[in-house]
Predict the 3D structure of the following.
Amino acid sequence: MKNIILVIVLLFSSKEYSQCWQNISTGDNYVLAVKSDGTLWAWGSNNYSKCGPSFQNYTNTPTQVGTENNWKKSSAGFYHSMVTKTNDKLYGWGINWEGEIGVGTSGLQYNIINYYAQVGNYTWSAVAAGNNFTIAIKTDGTLWNWGDNNPTITGDGTTVPTQIGIDNNWNKIAVGYYKSFGIKSDGTLWTWRPSSPTQIGNSNNWQVITRNYAIKSDGTLWDISSTPIQVGNDSDWVSVSKNFQGNHQLALKSDGTLWAWGENGYGELGDGTNINRAFPTQIGSNSNWSFISAGQRYSVALNSNGELWTWGLNVYGQLGDGSFDNKNTPTLINCPNTLGIHGVESNNSFKIYPNPSRKIINIDINQIKSINRIYILNITGQHITEIEKNTTEINIEKLEIGIYFISIETENGNYISKFIKN
């Protein structure tokens, strides 16, 4: 039987950053990101499997989640993740204590969803994962939520998507720790907890929203935590971000400059200090920033070249720079290599035997001098096992019967082959 060797496709180039990331979301000490090739990536803390099935407890570099390449938008929550695919179907994983995944279960016996669980057969245009609850907009413009029914939290206690009201003109949503926000297509701004949405003020020119902050079409920035209050007098704001749990804010102006304010104990503002700032302060002098996301005491941003920059708290590797050191200035993160699956009839680098096997598979490394790491993936590309030692014998006895891939990471490159557990 011929071995089918799967080739690693390298998409990294310093001149191709614009092709790298299309969507990034910051959660509780972890990051979810979708590359322009449709692959999904995660890094940081992985408690409750929120980064993805079969991840380690934490990872300090961007790590691919499976090998599927049809992911579209990600939303990193407190302990759970929600991601849509290009067909607008919604998937979730992580903690499910309050039914926040939306698959009809909750409680101790369903505490962790460690696989990609599809949320019904609906199509969605927007999703926001919060603290033990989720809100989302269907492609028909209707608003839905599910999860925690604590009186101070948005979710309604259901474990499946439940519609909020009957309006079908919802356009944008954002989650806070205790409440949620939304903008309708008519430009009006709304907030709600378990009760029906309540309009904030009488304006109908709201365009951008995040937790407790929003921007009007005239470019003014407003604090909407209670009665809207304008932040400063500038009228050239285009984007603002505040994590549902964090205590700092990031914002962009129309000239591409980056601004931040709030707490700065871990360098999350990125101004080179650890001094809190009460008012928006420009970060550096660059004028090519294009995207921002404020995490829990850390920050993520993209510039117009498509480069990814991170700074702030890094105790779980959430900055993705390969270290666990805090940074108080933006740090460049290289665009990672994508694992592509392409069949090739033969390869002399290595072979595995016996294949099929019931208990042990052996690796004949041939031209490979040293193995750095070995991964076992299932047929959908999900990581099942990671082995961090140089070995040529792997016990697969605990794997279920089926088809798997073995990925071997070496100093000279990465190699993948298919095997069968019988």
Remarks:
- The two ends are 15 Å apart (CA to CA).
- Residues 131 and 362 are 45 Å apart (CA to CA).
- The chain has no helices and 37 strands.
- Residues 1-18, 151-156, 340-347 have pLDDT under 50 and may be disordered.
